[in-house]
Request: fold
Amino acid sequence: MPENLWYLNQCELFQSLTDEQISKLEAQSRVRTFPKNSPIYLSDERANYVFLLAEGLMKISHITDEGKESILAFIQSGDLFGELAILENEQTDEYLYALEASTLVMIPKGEMTQLMVEHAEVAVGMTKIIGRRHQQIERRLKNLLFLSNREKLVHVLLDLAEQFGSFQNDQIHLRIKLSHQDLASLIGSTRETVTLTLGRLRLEGNVSIAGRQNIILTHPNILARSVHRNLQGQPHLRPTLLAG
Reply:
């Protein structure tokens, strides 16, 4: 089976398609690979393709006018992103970075649009993805504007737990390694503030750090209740964090 075809078959959005339809989509798609710790320049392609991360781990970031990085999303294997290209032709000033060796399937916007016209399941699935993105972005903006640094950090840790967490003895271990600067870039704060806030969460007994950058939510339900939130089922459901 061609590699593209295998990747596309693994995407939940395409599971209602026939082998012939998948083959046609595969023939129109492109595949690019990127080494670990490499920037990815897709400025010309962002308006013309929808992307499926077949393997690896990436982050989507924005550089502010002050030259600071703001992390918008982490993308992992099986995640579809860039779906807003279907609705608009504007290029974005976001950039991608491969945190691990990554394989990206680039699906032409025209092919995706045609699939949505011909297959209700694909149209409904894409609508759900876009709606979920909108809700996540709206929640993130409200958090940045109205919440304390502690509340913002707790929400981000819970988002990461839903996307990258694994349960072990009622604790949630994050499978992604994050520096204090990474967390600061996620909540729009400083590394020093994140260090102090994490220190308080550790003193409370709600967070622990194993080794280097391995975060454990020791009492995830208590953390969730402290910000008036419910954990969305088990981790591994993988609602992508703010992918755009």
